[in-house]
Write a structure and sequence with these properties.
Elements: E1 4-9, H1 14-25, E2 29-34, H2 40-51, E3 55-59, H3 67-78, E4 81-87, H4 102-128, E5 133-138, H5 151-170, E6 176-181, E7 186-187, H6 190-199, H7 201-205, E8 208-209, H8 210-222, E9 227-228, H9 232-243, H10 246-257
Helix pairs in contact: 1-8, 3-4, 4-5
The structure holds NADP nicotinamide-adenine-dinucleotide phosphate.
């Protein structure tokens, strides 16, 4: 069977793992990318047997600017038909400016901004050859707002948002659809669990499970939606936030995120 493959970055845990599972369920072949030693090989065997799909893996550090090129070379070598590119990998450090380590800044910009941009630039020709193709970039609700104490994270996710909308327009009328997901908190790892615990009710009531988020996001990606925001409370929050003067909004966000990592 000639499978169309989905490339998923950061596929070994969290939202990336849930997106890979959901795509497998829908019968797509998978090319999963994550760091070495994250159980990717076992995950591939499980998905392949469960859904009767081909699953390839690449264990590599996506901070390295050469990695997108290596992924593209691998796809060409194996002659895989890629029809879906999901730029999921991302990191979300928090803190006060001046306190970030150089490594945290580099990681944020390389994973959230550079990797996504390089992957699309490398794969767009391949995607244009398909009858229908999809690019999905994972932003964050934080990308809609300047967030004190999450300043680098929110700025990188703003980049993802605007970059996605701009290339969506460039590709309008072609076979390639570009979507950007801007989710609120997703229950993916202990860091999120801890953040939700310290932020209390607001954060808790907006939380969504990774598998629910993945299914919601993919349904809309296949419907070629531009901006995807899981959970009605997050969509309502976006509308409310856009009516509040920036000065007040920044003060509230500053209180909410101060001291949260
Ligand atoms: N969770 C949320 O509340 C939330 C909300 C909004 C948006 N998002 C966005 O959703 C995306 C996924 O978030 P998540 O919460 O699922 O994150 P996560 O649980 O930390 O998972 C991130 C994935 O990326 C992989 N990864 C990390 N650094 C890597 C590197 N240098 N090279 C290759 N792979 C690497 C991780 O591998 P390991 O298994 O080795 O860690 C893991 O598979 C991110 O873009 C994030 O900003 C998350």
């Amino acid at each position: 069977m000639n499978h169309t493959y989905a490339v998923v970055t950061g596929a070994s845990s969290g939202l990336g793992k849930a997106l890979a599972e959901e795509l497998g369920k829908r019968g797509y072949g998978l090319l999963l990318v994550a760091l070495p030693g994250t159980g990717l090989a076992d995950q591939a065997t499980i998905l392949s047997e469960k859904y009767n799909i081909p699953v390839q893996i690449i264990e590599a550090d996506l901070i390295n600017p050469e990695t997108p090129h290596e992924i593209q070379k691998y796809v060409s070598k194996l002659n895989l038909t890629v029809g879906i590119l999901i730029n999921n990998v991302g990191i979300g450090y928090g803190g006060e400016i001046g306190d970030y380590t150089d490594a945290a800044i580099r990681e944020s910009i390389m994973l959230n901004v550079s990797c996504t941009t390089l992957m699309i630039n490398k794969f767009i020709r391949e995607l244009k050859q398909r009858e229908k193709a999809y690019i999905l970039n994972i932003g964050s609700f934080g990308g809609f707002l300047p967030m004190p104490y999450k300043s680098i994270y929110s700025a990188t996710k703003s980049y993802i948002y605007y970059f996605s909308l701009a290339i969506r327009q460039e590709l309008r009328g072609t076979n390639v659809s570009v979507s950007v997901a801007m989710p609120g908190p997703i229950l993916t790892n202990n860091k999120v669990r801890e953040r939700v615990r310290t932020q209390g009710f607001i954060s808790k009531s907006n939380l969504i499970d990774a598998d629910k988020a993945a299914s919601y996001i993919l349904d809309r990606m296949f419907r070629r939606k531009g901006v995807i925001i899981p959970r009605w409370s997050i969509r309502a929050g976006y509308l409310i936030a856009s009516c509040i003067p920036y000065r007040i909004l920044l003060a509230v966000l500053g209180k909410l995120f101060k001291g949260v990592n």
